Amino acid sequence: MSRRRALIVIAALWTASAALGSAHVETFDLRGTVRAGGRAEADAVVWLDAPTAVPPRAEKPAVLDQRNLNFFPRVLAVRVGTVVDVPNNDRVFHNVFSFHDGKRFDLGLYPVGTTRHVHFDTAGVSRVFCNIHPNMAAYVKAVDTPYFAVSDRDGRFAIAALREGTYTWHAWRPGRQDLTGSAVFNPGSVLDLQWR
Amino acid sequence: MALTFFARAAVCCALVAGAARAEAQTIALDVDQSAGYSSEDVAAVHTKLRTFGEVGPGIRFNVTGTWGRQSEESDAFAVAYPYTEHPIVLDAYVERTFLPAGRLFGVRLGRYRTPFGISSESDHAYVGFQRNPLIRYDDFFALSSTFFEEGADLVVGVPRASLEASVGAPGDVGEHTRPRGVDAVLRAQTVVGAFIVGASYIATRPHLAHADPAAGPVAAGALAVDEEEERAPAGERAAFGGIDVRWMRNGVQFRGEYIAGRPFDGARTHGGYADAIIHRPFMGPITAALRAERIAHTDAGIPVLTGERYTAGTRVRLPRGFFAHIEIVHSSAALAERGATAVDLGVSYSVRIE
After folding, report:
1. Domains in chain A, please, with CATH?
2. Structural domain tally of chain B?
3. Do B53 and A133 touch (CB under 8 A)?
């Protein structure tokens, strides 16, 4: 390779790497807390509007487990388009259904060790029950954004891979009105929410 | 409380292990309260407490206690629970289920409902009916929904086809209980599409003895005799076989059981029921339940009891854990001790504390 040709290749690689560098956008995790009446609030769903977010890919299915006559987790947040697995890990049959809001379905009776699936294709809250176990209840909150999280027992949450900018945020928890607002988020931002 | 060795062992295991691991495991308490009034002049109140959780990785415990009062002895509101003067323990067991490579293996130790046919408490108690099927009521020479086993239960197979075997001693609750002795229950179950099909067999001791066949067909209440007199002679055995089918799609469930066997030497009982349980999306909180059933009992070849019953009921899920139950029951003459048609009204409240 002549010296001239080598210089051309090096220049091309330099230009390409610079272009790639300028395309890279730094992301960060937005952390925060949720409280209600002064106490840490678990199972609150926090999400950010993202109208320009890319459509969902074929993501790993979320799981709403049934064991010991209980749903786990009690509140599940998913992105619209997600298929939720609903396995039966009990020794008894279950009949999982949701007839009220959000996604309507009835999975029928199915035995231990088998799994049924629900495609949450619209945004909203689905209240999920078992028709033969009255104390089994869960919520599935489908949101039309990749930026969401559910608060843990200490009321803490983290929304992953956020880009710097101005966002409209929302928060929901069972039995309460949604909270909403707008803020600029950048690395180091904290979103603390409070239901009175 | 009527606790025997196996039940005590299960309770102790649950409590000890639960205390040791309380921080790491979820333990919950279900509280159910119900009250009902039937046009047969029967009133009832009932309380059930159930605690359950995990005492180790995959090891679950379940202890259920109950106490109910009934103004008159009746099968009204007696679905899945007995009415006794004192609080009693129903289930008390630990269990573990394994699903290695798509296979199913489960073990249960303690006191648990007799795994014959459609037997779980939830299958009977929460689908819209407030009375046991005739073939599942302990006054009618068949199998009771309040029969319990104290022993070990194993299930092996794959999720869609399994065999279950239970070996233990009767641990029944309620008015009519089986004497102590070795009990064996076998059950096979398969799931084909929307169908769940099972076959069961039990070899046990009789819980009732001979009525007076010479008296001919009698009313239900007349069958109950003094506790001392109704015991079958030692060494007498009872055996029943049964098939059960369930089908469900889009909120409509059909199910039924047919059970036949020998409740004691020289006698034969057979009968069954067919249920339709409907909970379609447009029905919202309402579940409709329909039942047709029949029972026949002969002693020394003489018909003692033959009857049919038809039930139409509804269960309505109300806010905040309340349910309302309304049921109309029409019985044939042999069963209609208090009238051919009865209306049962009930309300229940259920809450989970975690």
Report:
1. 26-195 (2.60.40.420)
2. 1
3. no
Measured CA angle at A131 (ends A126, A137), to 5 deg = 45
Distance, in angstroms, between A132 CA and closest chain B CA? 5
- Lookup: tokens for B262: 């020998």
The band of B245, judged by pLDDT with boundaries at 50, 70 and 90, is: very high
What's the token pair of residue A27? 């992301």
What pLDDT is attached to residue B137? 85
Other Cβ atoms within 10 Å of B193 Cβ, number: 8
Cβ distance A68 to B123 less than 8 Å, yes or no, reads: no
Q: Can you tell me the distance from the alpha carbon of B145 to that of B329, in angstroms, rounded to the nearest whole number?
A: 19
Instruction: Compute, in degrees rounded to 10, the torsion defined by CA atoms B112, B113, B118, B120.
Output: -60
Among residues A131, A183, A151, the alpha carbon closest in space to that of B281 is found at A131
Integer CA distances (angstroms), B350 to A74, B47, B76, B324, in order: 17, 10, 20, 12
Nearest to B122 among A67, A92, A100 (CB): A92
For residue B26, the domain's CATH number is 2.40.160.10
Q: Count how many Cα atoms sit within 13 Å of the Cα of residue A90 in the half-sphere of its side chain.
A: 26
pLDDT band for position B45 (cuts 50, 70, 90): very high
Select from A67, A91, A94, A99 the residue whose CB has the most chain B CBs within 10 Å, as the one to mutate to test that interface: A91
DSSP-assigned states of every residue in B44-96: EEEEEEEEEEEEETTEEEEEEEEEEEESS--STT-SS----SS-EEEEEEEEE
